[in-house]
Amino acid sequence: MTPRIPQNEKAATFLSLHTRGRLLVLPNVWNPLGARILEAKGFPAVATASAAVSASLGFKDGERIARDTMIDMIGRIARSVDVPVTADIERGYGRTLSELQETIRAVIDAGAVGVNLEDGLGDGGGLRPVEDQCARIAAAREVAAHHDVHLVINARIDSYESGVFTSAGDATEDAVSRADAYVRAGADCVYPIGPGDEATARALRSRIAAPINILGSPGAAPLAVLESIGVNRVSFGPFVLRSLLRKFLDIADGLMNRKDPSGMRDMLSRIEAGEYLLDGPE
């Protein structure tokens, strides 16, 4: 699918969605089909989830699939829709700044106009030092500027998830401090991943001037509440994929244990599914 909208225009559009006064809702996808469905349903942008992409290929999250594999999936998704696409690239698939910059170049070349870049080191490794993460954000910004694309950097903050802090209050203090530093380094939005409850969202919103991304879930504050608080963006990580996996497991259990195919009763027809599929060679 040939892009009809210049990439720098998509980037500007995506950035504007963070400051329009309405909540940007991003149900994360892992393939072109999901992206096309969201576009058809009127979502103004599409976000990938690294955990969902990895799981769809049979791997756990945490940069366990090759960078080239992730970039290929990002490119397929970005080429499948006209709306802006932002990509979850975890820690950036690179230990050094130059390796990170190679990843950013590849992401932009693939057609994405935004990235999630996290400061957690994974596997119990704690948090990257603030100054190091700021250098990585600045390095990503430098590459984007060279491409004349305002890559929307969503700086994920793992204070709540890292296990470093013994209290939620300490984690909040760290998240707020990191948010300020990351925005000064070039981030457009900050993503203190973890609690989605109203009290935490309010605390973060009251102390962070930049756009904020909250992790949504059935147990998080309702979207209407997050919007009223002034949260700018909500994404769902791998939760959409896991919800569909539950449905698939129920179908499999029904067929194996009860010889009952009724779990497929509500499926789309061939014609309905075909509305989201291309008719032609890649």
Summarize the structure.
Helices cover 46% and strands 11% of the residues.
Would you mind describing this structure in some detail?
With 282 residues, this protein is α/β, with parallel strands linked by helices. It contains 11 helices and 8 strands. It has one domain (7-239): TIM Barrel (Alpha-Beta Barrel). α4 (67-79) packs parallel to α5 (97-110) and α5 crosses α6.
Which helices and strands occur, and which strands form pairs?
Elements: H1 7-16, E1 24-26, H2 32-40, E2 46-47, H3 50-56, H4 67-79, E3 85-88, H5 97-110, E4 114-118, H6 130-146, E5 152-157, H7 168-185, E6 189-192, H8 198-207, E7 213-215, H9 223-229, E8 233-235, H10 239-257, H11 270-274
Parallel strand pairs: 1-8, 2-3, 3-4, 4-5, 5-6, 7-8
CA-CA gap between termini: 8 Å
Order of helices and strands: HEHEHHEHEHEHEHEHEHH
Strand order in the sheet with the most strands: 2-3-4-5-6
CATH overall fold name:
TIM Barrel
Query: CATH-wise, what's the superfamily?
Result: Phosphoenolpyruvate-binding domains
Q: Count the helices. How many? A: 11
How many domains make up the coordinates?
1
Secondary-structure-based class equals alpha/beta
User: How much is the average pLDDT?
Assistant: 96
Percentage of residues in strands: 5-15%
Helix percent reads 40-55%
- Characterize the biggest β-sheet: 5 strands, parallel
Q: What is the global morphology?
A: globular
Poorly predicted segments: none
Number of strands: 8
